Amino acid sequence: MSLSTCGVVIVIGLITVVGCGGAGEDGAPHDPAAAPVDAAAPGAMLGGGALTPIHDGQAGSPHVSVEWDVSGATITIAYGRPFLKGRIVGDSVEPLDGRVWRLGADEATTLITDRDLMLGAAHVPAGEYTLWTISNGDATELIVNHETGQWGTDYDASRDLGRTPMTVGTLDTPAEQLTLHIEHSELRFEWGTTVASVPIMVH
């Protein structure tokens, strides 16, 4: 299946990270020259929502907060945005088959909503949660978890609110940087040639 990217991403500027060395959250060596950081001003658009930069990330994966207005609900997702840097999703970079993924980089990805939502088959009351995915073969599930504030490797399945299947497809143009979108009544992520989505509805 082939899906084209929806929405408009406005890039205001790029800077180069000059920071400490070492491996990133996905085990890739930190290469400052290969990891430009989004320096978009607050109010720029990303994935159909209003972008606010948070920080540069520990290994060149800039962290952002993106806010959407969906049918009167304010939905905010904060996440780290890793770069592929020549790696292959599902092979040399997450998500890897059979492993829970933080849906981002560094800290766990956080979702805040001021209205009850349906994410696929999962009922999500107003509040704050973390988002994860797990892939097994061709099947990918979105996980909504009650625990917040943790590092992205500290997943506790006992705190799951629910899981719901995602529709997985292939992008015509690979996404060099992980991007989450809320558009056209769906939440989706684009990463490498992978696109995975789940319907979103406000209660």
Please characterize this protein's 3D structure.
The chain has 203 residues and is mostly beta strands. It has one domain. The protein is built from no helices and 15 strands. Strands 1, 4, 5, 6, 7, 8, 9, 10, 11, 12, 13, 14 and 15 form a 13-stranded mixed sheet that branches. Strands 2-3 form a two-stranded antiparallel ribbon. A hairpin with a 2-residue loop joins strand 10 (117-119) and strand 11. The chain is globular and about 40 Å long.
| Number of helices, counting only DSSP H or I runs of 4 residues or more | 0
The end-to-end distance, rounded to whole angstroms, is 30 Å
Largest sheet geometry: 13 strands, mixed
The total strand number stands at: 15
What sequence of helices (H) and strands (E) makes up the elements?
Answer: EEEEEEEEEEEEEEE
User: What percent strand?
Assistant: over 45%
Number of domains: 1
Query: How helical, in percent, are the residues?
Result: under 10%
Q: Catalogue the unreliable spans.
A: 1-39
Overall 3D geometry? globular
The Cα radius of gyration reads 16 Å
Classify the secondary structure makeup into a structural class.
mainly beta
Mean pLDDT: 83
Please specify the SSE layout and strand pairing:
Blueprint: E1 2-3, E2 14-16, E3 36-38, E4 45-46, E5 49-55, E6 63-70, E7 73-80, E8 100-101, E9 109-113, E10 117-119, E11 122-124, E12 127-136, E13 139-145, E14 160-183, E15 186-202
